Amino acid sequence: MVISQGAFAAMVFTDRWFMSQLDAVHIAAAMGGAVAAFFSKSLFVGLISYANALVAQYYGAGQLQRCPRVVSQGVIIAVCALPFLALITVGVGQAFAYMGHDPLQVPLERAYFYALMAGSFFHLLKACLACYFVGIGRTRVVMLVDVAGICLNIPLTWLLVFGHGGLPELGIVGAALGTVCSQAFTIVLFLLFYLNRTHRLRFAVPESFCFDRGVMRRYLRLGSPSALESFMNTATFNLFLLMFQGYGVVQGASMAIVFNWDMLSFVPMMGLGMGVMTLIGQFVGRGDMQRANQVISSGFILALSYSAILALVFLIFRVELVEVFATDDSYFAEIRTLAATMMIGLTTYMMADAVILIAGGALRGAGDTRWIMLTSTSLHWLMLVVQYFVIVRWQMDPLVSWWVFVAMLLMIASAYSVRLYRGRWRRPERLARVMQE
User: Fold this and answer.
1) How many CB atoms neighbour CB 104 within 10 A?
2) What pLDDT shows up at residue 173?
3) How far apart are the first and last CA of the chain?
């Protein structure tokens, strides 16, 4: 899962690097358009992605025939989401003009956003299939598919962005189309594994193509808090990002560069978090929580070790890492100074990210999604209120805003640690309610 999530990070990283070959405005526009697209899909992605824990719980309980039924319910949810996604696309697309961004940036981020949203269904379906294979423990399938996807995405994006190989030069739109095409390709690969005869017979896949009221009820009951958490947190982050980009192209590009390096830490650790969530979910299904501590301890050791090593590298080589995205325009001298300072904040909260992902994975796997939703969204919105005063009302220095963001992540990590330590989430009566349909 670390390799799988790392492939996604490499894809986004490469897209941003291609944009840096154009100019700083394209870097900022790609960041704004991508975050807006993820925000627009976040409610449905958050809901569908809870398939991981559901499948793991059924798999742990030995109810193999119910595992693919989770996929069928996820596809139903994805189809029902399409009209809402179309309306959201129109609304958010028109909102870019009112965000106070540089006039050169707005049409670029709108074009990038529209192209990504055109592939929304592929994104949802891919998430559902990937979570299914993670839930049954076949993470190598996910790794192979995601690596194959990135092997297509990087050269295809290069061709579409710069117009090589006889293809039209599409610029930022080409980067988005490369992403959409690679998602469609990975879905085909997932279906080859999913419809394989051995897998099909073992999990009774043909009998799963139906509406299952019990599975759908669990999906909505346990997944809705995760969906709302994903939506609300993405909304606050998106609004924070849009306010921060109101400082100007230099600040927007600096944040895009810093978050690009952040992904090399955060996104692979998401794979560890998914692994912890899967194992905890399987133990919940089996009614065996004695090994939960081993899973959580192993997750923390791996995540904290990885993030500590990477944080040290980022701190020592922060200027050199920023210069990887050097542009030929007049903006980059200021970008180098600001982004290098922001990298110090990044190294500060990387350990907090590790705690959030591992603790959050354990709590989600045990069905403690409502508490996570309330805690995480409350702290995110508190951060946004503070950011409004810092950026809009008081017009303070961008670094003040950046350190407010860092403080919020440290607070979330502390709250998750306390919840995990106190252990209310693992009481037998609570776990019994989680498994009820």
Assistant:
1) 13
2) 84
3) 29
8-state DSSP, 349 = H
Q: pTM (2 decimals)?
A: 0.76
How buried is residue 118: exposed, middle or buried, by Cβ count under 10 Å (0-12/13-18/19+)? middle
If one counts the domains in the chain, the total is 1
Say if CB 376 and CB 357 are below 8 A apart.
Answer: no
Instruction: Judge contact between 124 and 81, C-beta under 8 A.
Output: yes
Sequence-distant (6+) residues with CB within 8 A of 97 are 106
With cut-offs at 50, 70 and 90, classify the pLDDT of residue 186: very high
The amino acid that residue 40 corresponds to is S
How many other CB atoms are found less than 10 A from the CB of residue 338? Answer: 22
**62-96: pLDDT as tens digits:** 889 999 999 999 999 999 999 999 998 988 888 77
* Three-state secondary-structure class, residue 189: helix
The C-alpha atoms of residue 202 and residue 68 are separated, in whole angstroms, by: 11
CB neighbours (10 Å) of residue 76? 15
Q: How many other C-beta atoms are found inside a 10 Å radius of the C-beta of residue 301?
A: 11
What confidence tens digit (pLDDT) does each residue in 407-416 have?
999 999 999 9
User: CA-to-CA distance for 185 and 285, rounded, in angstroms?
Assistant: 33
Q: Mention every residue, 6+ apart, whose C-beta is less than 8 A from residue 397.
A: none
Tell me which residue has tokens 């299914």.
132
Contact of 367 with 54, CB cutoff 8 Å:
no
Q: Residue 339 sits in which domain range?
A: 2-435
Q: Are residues 34 and 115 in contact, defined by beta-carbon separation less than 8 angstroms? A: no
Cβ neighbours for 277, distance < 8 A, ≥ 6 positions apart: 52, 53, 56, 361, 362, 364, 365
Tell me which residue of 149, 169, 146, 145 sits closest to 159, measured CA to CA. 169
Would you state the structure tokens that stand for residue 117, as one six-digit string?
């949203």
Q: How many CB atoms lie within 10 A of CB 82?
A: 12
What CA–CA distance (Å, rounded) separates 281 from 114? 36
Which region holds residue 171: left if phi is over 0, alpha if psi is between -120 and 50, else beta? left
Q: In Å, what is the CA distance from 207 to each residue of 60, 65, 70, 204, 425?
A: 20, 8, 12, 6, 34
